[in-house]
User: What shape does this take?
Amino acid sequence: MNTQRFESITKAFREQLGGEPTVWCRAPGRVDLMGSHTDYNLGYVLTLPIDRDTWMAARPRGDRAVRLYSLNLAAAGGFELDSISRAPGAIWDNYVRGVASVLQAEGFALKGFDAVVHSTVPMSSGLSSSAALECATATVFQAVSGFTLDPVEKARLCQRAENQFVGVNCGILDQYTSCCGQAGCALLLDCCDLSSRAAPLAEGIRVVICDTKFKRELAGSEYGQRRAQCEEGARLLGVRALRDVSLDQFNAREKELPAEVAKRCRFIVEENDRVLQMAKALTAGDEAAIRAVTAASFKGACELYEISAPAMLALMEAMLKALGVIGARQAGAGFGGCMVAFVRAGAVEAFSQSVRQAYHAQTGIAPEVYAVEPAAGAEVLNFACG
Assistant: This one.
């Protein structure tokens, strides 16, 4: 247990809400090791639940109110379960409201609670801070209201909250990883049937997050446009989703598509194949394959899907020149946010120092660079204050 974090959250609960929390829940962020934008195309993603997570310390109420305090933002929030509406603007508690709204629409009898929220998942960085908050919220509602949810169903409902209530048309990847993650391994997720299998990482390979500190807002980015272009491509090709198109089939019919739509579709079809290649390479510790597949993914992200940003290019250059690097690529939806590197275990500190210096020298921005470990999915923690 992180004693310092536990104590700071408990202190905030006493000061902001009075008394002691009795229920503690957490849900992890995630990083995609391979598979950018393949999830909403019903393809494969190699995803890693990480030990950067969102904690909620809660106490049930006797009424239908939800009262919230964000320790990160030093901000209060809340709503009534009998009259849930979307708060105007990019209000963080809309994610909590959305989960409550969807759960009630599904017939779950919810009880109110007081909660302090604290997250170590960087916001607007591509590591799924919103999904971690949604999945932690659903777990708290389970605990205080006395119902159970299958992890996959919980992920579906949290995704619906983000799609329908918050207004971000995301795929299932973020919520699935946060709800269904397994400690110690990545997940090879099939977004068609929402099945997954454990994909262990070879000994000696560490996953290192490199944050550009270039903030991205998913709802205001070109994410929706990319998704619409993929859906148009699938329609013109006569398939349910781009998952159903092999590379050979795409090569044969590419000229039937508008040029820009064809570029987007080619990236997805190729990226889907790269996920399966990467899962094998990481488990086998095949450094040459890791290097080749990550390089191809980033080139496609820049030239075909066009989700790069100058900060990402600068950070990629710094990562690839650093000691101990095996390969590196984009993470999340792109347009800034985080990158991910695969680094030899003994070189993590030297790699991190080199990246920080080189990126800062080129951009004037101090990046965050840190190794992450595979973490368990959303859960009730086995401790309470009092």
Remarks:
- The mean pLDDT is 94.
- The chain has two domains: 3-197+375-380, 202-372.
- The first strand starts at residue 23 and ends at 34.
- The radius of gyration is 21 Å.
